[in-house]
Amino acid sequence: MLFLGTIENKLDQKGRISVPADFRMVVKNSTFQGVILFHSFTNKCIEGCSMERMEMLSDATDNLDLFSEENDNLNSLIFSDARQLSFDVTGRIVIPSDLLEFAGIKNSALFVGKGKTFQIWNPDEFNKFQNNVRKKAFDARPSLSFKKE
Amino acid sequence: MLFLGTIENKLDQKGRISVPADFRMVVKNSTFQGVILFHSFTNKCIEGCSMERMEMLSDATDNLDLFSEENDNLNSLIFSDARQLSFDVTGRIVIPSDLLEFAGIKNSALFVGKGKTFQIWNPDEFNKFQNNVRKKAFDARPSLSFKKE
DNA sequence: TTGACAACCATAAAATACCATAATATTATT
DNA sequence: AATAATATTATGGTATTTTATGGTTGTCAA
Questions:
Q1: Tens digit of pLDDT for each residue in B32-91?
Q2: Res. B148: pLDDT tops 80
Q3: Is A1 within the bounds of a domain?
């Protein structure tokens, strides 16, 4: 199962927001009924994934080197920053305020499927980003975008 | 199993449409009883495939690199646009309205087999497209089109 | 005792399951 | 081979469930 599509949901005054049903389905068989969130390293948005994915990341970065400063820094960046947020009965989470601020999210947020992971964006910010990505893809491969007659 | 042939079916007022029985057979042994749909990057139509195929794509693009902007952009193009649609009891799906608009589909749609994938077209648009393709093939290779006796 | 937070209850809208039927194809029978 | 019987589709309408969202209460700790 993959995180697919983009769904916009609202934050209520208590900061709660529904995780899209399709996204909840992805972690349905997971031990942890919730998601992991952390700052994105590439964009002005929040990164999200399942606990299983986080464990894979851990396995990938873990080289058992207790003396590697680089390794320590990387783990610090990723794991100390990550929060596990469990769903309430109706499938909502409360996104920590520092993450909301980082992503510039106020009243509503966009859940963006990325396959094995997902992101949470300010809807307007994502529009800008997506247009930019499409433009870049277009510039890189014009032959795919416009077939000559 | 492959997606083969072209079948035209109707949309009802609720936007439901039967996925051709032969197409449903292709994903019969899949864990996810449904199809993945997304905008075509090359034509005015909807692209479709099985969840397995989407997972293969995911495996191919997934590199666990949290710092790769390029990878992030690629995933954004592919997965943020895709929807998983499961069959109802009679084998129907509801195609999201934005995809219908993109492909210019109103009352009926044409399922076009492409082997490992398929497409969904406005029937008239597909005719135009098909004629164009034939014309191009004709222009390119007149010698193949008219065999002398 | 106040403020943060979790558990609980409620509801409108949207999505999906359910039931029914008509059209088509497939098989069986004579 | 012709026709009857059966199964499988595609399609239409209704009922039920799920989802997203809002509000209230209870609990624990500062």
A1: 999 999 999 899 999 999 999 999 999 998 888 888 888 889 889 999 999 999 999 999
A2: no
A3: no
Residue B121 DSSP SS3: strand
With b for 16 or more beta-carbon neighbours within 10 A and e for fewer, the A52-88 pattern comes to ebbeebeeeeeeeeeeeeeeeeeeebbeeebbebebe
pTM: 0.89
Write the residue in A5, A22, A136 that is nearest to B80 by C-beta: A5
Q: Is A10 within the bounds of a domain?
A: yes
Which residues does chain A have within 8 Å of residue B64's beta carbon, measured at their own beta carbons?
A: 56-57, 60
From the CA of A17 to the C1' of C6: give the distance in Å.
Answer: 15
A122 within domain boundaries:
yes
Q: At what angle do helices B69-79 and B51-61 cross, to 10 degrees?
A: 170
Task: Say how many Å lie between the first and final Cα of chain A, rounded.
Answer: 39
Query: Cβ contact (<8 Å) for A115 and B76?
Result: no
The domain that holds A37 is classified in CATH as 3.40.1550.20
Structural domain count of chain A: 1
Say if A42 is an interface residue toward chain B (CB within 8 Å).
Answer: yes
A65 in Cβ contact with A71 (< 8 Å):
yes
Mean pLDDT value of segment B122-142? 87
- A149: in domain: no
Domain that holds residue A94: 6-140
Q: What pLDDT was estimated at residue A145?
A: 37
